[in-house]
Write a structure and sequence with these properties.
mainly alpha, 7 helices, 42% helix
Length: 166
């Protein structure tokens, strides 16, 4: 008689679990992409207009190729306004920001003491060879040796982080 009661109890528990799991949506885990809704970025027309204002050679960059290069960065960084810091800091607003100065991110001493202001030239140099550009940086990325790929990425970063009103 006991095996029958135990079997009934197990079946009832499984049935109840199935019923409850069918109610509503499955909860999603918060990630960099789901933590908050992504704000609408610039339209393709606005992106083209912003791109045209960039200094050479960035003004002729391929933004689609820059977005592809960004995939190498996105495992450690976010790009959207208000995005979270991950292994690396959120990069929204990086242009014009002093190295190692983003609030609430724990930079290496090397980056805090670097003293650069991020612009096209400093980003280009850093992304070419991070460890020799800022000795002691905790960024483990080996750099982008291909000049065109770097230019595409830097242009993409600038266009994606420039407010539409500018």
């Amino acid at each position: 008689m006991r095996p029958l009661i135990l079997s009934t109890l197990i079946l009832s528990t499984l049935a109840l679990g199935l019923l409850l799991s069918a109610c509503g949506e499955k909860p999603t885990r918060k990630t960099a992409e789901t933590a908050r809704p992504a704000p609408a970025g610039p339209s393709d027309t606005e992106k083209a207009a912003i791109l045209a204002t960039l200094p050479a050679p960035y003004n002729t960059a391929d933004l689609k190729a820059g977005e592809k290069a960004w995939n190498k960065c996105r495992s450690c960084h976010t790009l959207i306004d208000g995005g979270i810091d991950m292994v690396g800091p959120n990069l929204h607003g990086v242009f014009g920001r002093k190295s190692g100065s983003k609030a609430d991110y724990q930079y290496s001493e090397a980056m805090k003491n670097h003293g650069a202001v991020w612009d096209y030239a400093t980003l280009d140099d850093y992304l070419t060879h991070p460890q020799s550009s800022v000795p002691g940086t905790k960024m483990g990325f080996m750099g982008l040796k291909d000049e065109t790929e770097r230019h595409n990425l830097i242009a993409y970063l600038k266009v994606e982080t420039t407010p539409a009103s500018k």
